[in-house]
């Protein structure tokens, strides 16, 4: 059994245990309420057994919260895909991962995203993307298919020119100053951002340094069609589709958006970063 699957199963078990505890019922009595053996309740709560949809539906009803059944089914469905190790995904190189994202972006109509430390892949220039992918290849010790991966990432950007799409993207101002590439590459990348302002399919907001915020900038994330959230960490890609998680990340995005600069003000912030970074 994969570590990713087991981690997801343990997380589901923890949620089941939480619902039982909130109902104020001990494990023995809860099993009796369900007509199960006590050991089954224990195995499910501790991630030792995989639940079925019938199990999660019955659990929600027994805990007195039948409205939680849909969330539990969603968590169950996502056991295999909720956590995907980058080491495993990159075993064949970066291109397969980029190709997968091309397909996912093509079937997405509306996206809300936020990045705190990097220019989003959707907006990257080939040179900027090349430096990022090369650095990540070294870090993850994965196959060096850099040029193929860059080409695939550029294909992802074709969705920016498709009618009916909308990409609402926030970038923390700090990301405009992070030199993960030579200065001349970064200035070209910033020029690319300026060119995106005003596109009918793009709403680009810059969250200024020093702006009052209702929450901390935290990590980057992407909300696909208000149905799924993708979060990338150093070693794992996380995918969430429960109603609670979607609502939580939606509130975070909304909070950051209250401080974001758009239009001419965003242009000025990008121009300031370009001036500071430009080669002497």
From TrEMBL:
Pfam families (UniProt xref): DUF5753, HTH_31
- Which SUPFAM superfamilies does its entry note? lambda repressor-like DNA-binding domains
Q: Which residues form the HTH cro/C1-type domain?
A: 16-52
UniProt-recorded Gene Ontology molecular function terms: DNA binding
Q: Superkingdom, according to UniProt?
A: Bacteria
Entry-linked PROSITE patterns:
HTH_CROC1
Q: What is this protein called?
A: Helix-turn-helix domain-containing protein
Q: Can you name the source organism? A: Streptomyces sp. R33
